[in-house]
Amino acid sequence: MNLFPIESGNFKLDGGAMFGVVPKSLWSRTNPADSNNMIDMAARCLLIENGDRLTLIDTGMGNKQSEKFFGYYYRWGDYSLEKSLKSHGFHPDDITDVFMTHLHFDHCGGSIQWNKDRTGYEPAFKNATFWSNQSHWNWAVNPNRREKASFLKENIIPMHESGQLKFVVQPNTDYAEPSELDFGIFFADGHTEKQMLPHINYKGKTLVFVADLLPTAGHLPLPYVMGYDTRPLLTLPEKEKFLNAAADNNYYLFLEHDAHNEIITVKHTEKGVRMDRAFTFNELFN
After folding, report:
1. pLDDT at 114 over 90
2. Degrees (nearest 5) of the Cα angle 38, 12, 56?
3. What mean pLDDT is reported for the chain?
4. Which H helix or E strand runs over 239?
5. Do residues 55 and 47 make contact, with C-beta atoms less than 8 angstroms apart?
6. Is 259 helix (H, G, I), strand (E, B) or coil?
């Protein structure tokens, strides 16, 4: 097995929205804001090469939306999904599986693109199976008013219409052992219904793709919960359970949205679970 971090493009979001009820005087210590109160964000995906299988976890925003749409997110830097794949010697047609932690546009938008004559949409990965789960899919295609702007039909419906969509089997608990895919999955409901966090055993370490349960290292304190979470009071116990397990088992946390920290470990302290060490992917695995 080989792993490759895939940078799909940096952007900015409002710091207050990213930290909910936490005062700016606290969250700005770890995530400083610009003059518009915007903080740096990454859309860091992960590619798993295992034999003939090439699995991409999340796909970023993509590039099919309007200039007005992207104007809200202040994209910066030179990263793109296709360029990042190419830098590791891969092409979108090589991808066999696309696993989506959830279907918010900044996690799945790159899965679907304009067709050649821009009259409709098609999968950006024509040879891949797209993976979600039935509960989250139902939630996304019948969105509540709060999340409706995050579940864009043009990102979601073409997956089903292509015939390439498949659902993972959901367990009766919050964790599924590896079966259909090459990793276990932790299910969390606070941010959105049945968000999926892959747990990957790699070179003697457990690497966890933490998606929006822990957007950045600055979100480690339990009350630091995004304003985007639909059920923040559910996020709290899920986050506490996960972070305690991460500290107890020395998980390596792969941060999708932290523009400045790729991977961190955590430890128990008197104030709760806090960051222990930060690593670049290359420092840790190369």
Report:
1. yes
2. 155
3. 96
4. helix 232-249
5. yes
6. coil
CA angle 96, 101, 104 (to 5 degrees): 110
- What percentage of residues in the chain have a pLDDT greater than 90? 94
CA torsion 83-98-4-264 (nearest 10°) is 120
By CB atoms closer than 10 A (0-12, 13-18, 19+), residue 135 is middle
- CB burial readout 267-278, b (16+ within 10 A) else e: eeeeeebebeeb
Q: How far is CA 37 from the centre of its chain?
A: 23
The reported pLDDT for the residue numbered 37 is 97
DSSP characters over 124-145: SSTTPEEEE-HHHHHHHHS--T
Tell me how far apart the alpha carbons of residues 285 and 187 are, in angstroms, rounded to a whole number.
26
Q: Using pLDDT thresholds of 50, 70 and 90, give the confidence band for residue 179.
A: confident
pLDDT score, position 286: 80
Q: Which structure tokens are listed for 283?
A: 């420092």
pLDDT at position 99: 98
Residue 211: burial class (beta carbons within 10 Å; 0-12, 13-18, 19+): buried
Q: What are phi and psi of 235, to 5 degrees?
A: -55, -40
R_g of the chain, CA atoms, integer Å: 18
Question: How many Cβ atoms are within 10 Å of 149's Cβ, its own excluded?
Answer: 10
For 7, half-sphere exposure in the C-beta direction (CA atoms, 13 angstrom radius) is 19
DSSP H or E stretch at residue 156: helix 153-162
d(CA 197, CA 209): 6
